[in-house]
Model the fold of this input.
Amino acid sequence: MNSQKKLLSILHIVYGSLTLITLLIVNLALEVALPFIENEVSGDELRLIKTVFLFVHSLFFILIILFPLPSIVGGIAQLNGKKWGLTVMMISGCLSLLSVPVGTALGVFTIYVFTQSSKQEQND
Done:
């Protein structure tokens, strides 16, 4: 494995881990805040708050599945020599382009390494 792919794998693992930790901390903060909010409201407001909390909780679960996990899995797979790891990192890198500025830099580097890898495979 060349050094760019190894660096890209490590960057994806670190970026995915930091994103996962951040999402879990925000989710935990919401879980801790909910009982305090429930004590202050009642009736229809309480049902609305519980509905919004369920929506936000589901959104965080979806974000965890979409963003950090594929990045971590792709990075580990690439470090272990699996060819599909680069493809998973490419998908994750394209999704991370929306996360300015660190995710954008990672996404651009991912696309660069992927295109260089494709050129090398065509020459071989």
Notes: The mean pLDDT is 90. The first helix runs from residue 3 to 40. The radius of gyration is 19 Å.
